[in-house]
Please model this.
Amino acid sequence: MRRAVLSVLLSLALPLGAWAQTTVEAGGVKFDTTTEVAGQKLLLNGAGVRYRAIFKVYSVGFYLKAKADTPDGVIKQEGAKRVMLKMLRDVDGKELGKAFTDGMRKNAVADERAKTINGIFKFGEIFNDMKRANSGSTIGVDWIPGTGAQVVVDGKAVGEPIKEIEFYNALLRIWLGDQPADEDLKELLLGKEKRHSGRQR
Model:
């Protein structure tokens, strides 16, 4: 009895932070609720699963300095950012790269389009060289102020940083644009509950 009472008292004495959620699950993948990019602490804004028809393709999470629940709030926010994907199935590298570049072009903003061309080309080349994105592999794209967008595959930097912020904005619009990859996923990445029952192709 004494041990039980002591256990309860000790648990009540723990700081509030000890009870805070430290991970969020999406498609069987756990995303840390905080991370660090270029010395800046970032918060998990939202996470979800990208489906193609009925198949899970990857889980993705967005990290920002401060949470935002609108596309403009995410895209226009200053500071470091991170897009983190974890593959849930094997996908041909060229096919994945084409899906990303098509999504960027489809959602491009007219006055930024010219400044995205260089970055979209370099990004596509990275996936062409990758050959295959295997299930379980991680693909991150960090926005580092003053440096650019750095692609990181399984913890290793790949390629040179892409300097144009317009490229990174276009990348975010794959999931947050007017024609997003998946409407449900868009809501989840904005930290909201999904509203739609259908799946985007």
